[in-house]
Known about the structure:
mainly alpha; Ferritin; 2 domains; three-stranded antiparallel β-sheet; 65% helix; 3% strand
Amino acid sequence: xxxxxxxxxxxxxxxxxxxxxxxxxxxxxxxxxxxxxxxxxxxxxxxxxxxxxxxxxxxxxxxxxxxxxxxxxxxxxxxxxxxxxxxxxxxxxxxxxxxxxxxxxxxxxxxxxxxxxxxxxxxxxxxxxxxxxxxxxxxxxxxxxxxxxxxxxxxxxxxxxxxxxxxxxxxxxxxxxxxxxxxxxxxxxxxxxxxxxxxxxxxxxxxxxxxxxxxxxxxxxxxxxxxxxxxxxxxxxxxx
Length: 240
């Protein structure tokens, strides 16, 4: 009887050791799986894939990030921020043109700016939230300076200044929109670039329809220098 009890005890001890060993193996496998599923570094739910610096100088130090919508490059993020910034100064500029514009063409341009950037701003906020991006809430210092120029413009100088500032800004961003639309592999950014392309082209068209664009002044000089609030740098030929 004693030997039988010893055998039972020995058997139970062996079974316990087997269960314990199995538990250790399962725990180790679980830890390995967790380590594989949770990246070492994440940003807004996205994994950093590279830390390369963009040659254009617009990199925010995060490199290319993987998202549920495809890779998100520094150029993509720069574009999304610039779409947001565009609305932060072009919306108030458009509203002002609706109030101060004397020519119907200038008021029409202001209306298109308000309508276009209201919708585009809604879209860019959705994109920013989906991609976990922090977007600006104030115009850049340069954009604020343009708004200040418009505020200070008096009389007949206002409409040429408004048209020239807005046309040149749209011409610059149009190039970026096309580049991002052609190169991005992120579906959210691509859809935003498609919307922005249509909006910017519409705005360029209505601004040019005013007949106040000084095309020579668009080339190499900043908007602030192309037209002064008081005296146009180059005589403008408005259409009747």
